[in-house]
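protien #1 (seq + structre)
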Amino acid sequence: MKALRQALPRAAALIVLAAALTACGFQLRGTGGQFNMPFQSIYLAFPETSPLGTELKRNLRGGDTEVVAQPEKAQARFDVLSESRGKSILSLNSQGRVREYLLTYTLVFRVRDASGAELLGPTEINLKRPITFNETQVLAKESEEALLYRDMQTDLVQQILRRLAAIKPAKTA
């Protein structure tokens, strides 16, 4: 009986906390943030092994847009014009050794409708992240670099989804 009296206030506090979080509009990132696309099907012109293409497909399939394998069956075609990752020196220390790098991830794409008309002209998204470097921690810094590229990829997918959702399809007369 005593254990029940101790557990009851905790359960009540959890219920109040959960109610307060849902009442304020709190949502975890990526949940419930579905985008309403102006088309029901899309063809993504990414290579099969592209991690960016895979993540974009996964996010599109989470909504009500169908990702098709043949461009002829799609209402919209996502064409990748270029995709590149880069790493350049950002700063040096007093001995002339690298202290910081700048990681870049650039994607240029366009979106066309089934007839080939451009819905979204060539668009470039360029992401940059600085990373400090320490030659005594090379393996840790390589892991951090890979993590930053994955973070940029996730950010890139979210930006692509927002731009796709903002497309206004041409009205047919």
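ok now protien #2
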Amino acid sequence: MTAIVSSHPATEHEGLNRVSNGLGFITNHIHNSRLVYAGVLAAIVVLANAWIEPSGLGAWLALWAIVFAVAALLTPSSKNHPGVIEQWLQSQRNARANEQMWQLAMSDHRVMADLLAAHNSHR
């Protein structure tokens, strides 16, 4: 009988890493899809229609004001000028990346030295 003994037990679950990387990939590609923007906008229109129960001109005007406001927030104006939601999501991604870099710097003195050198050279 053969037994394999590892002196370095795994600190992370490989299957969980694959699932999380896959979800991140899907999220990044879905996030940039115009079809997703259209689907979210359509869902909001349906919810607004059910909520307002349009029966008069004022209700229809309110419904379309909501539709155009959501469209303005969701859709980017161009590749160089992202929408409000995209800007917020980018700031969240940047904050997450900064936190990960800081955690790495706290555990590795070489990374911390590089960060301090970059900070001092920037002054």
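Residues 84-107 form the longest helix (24 residues).
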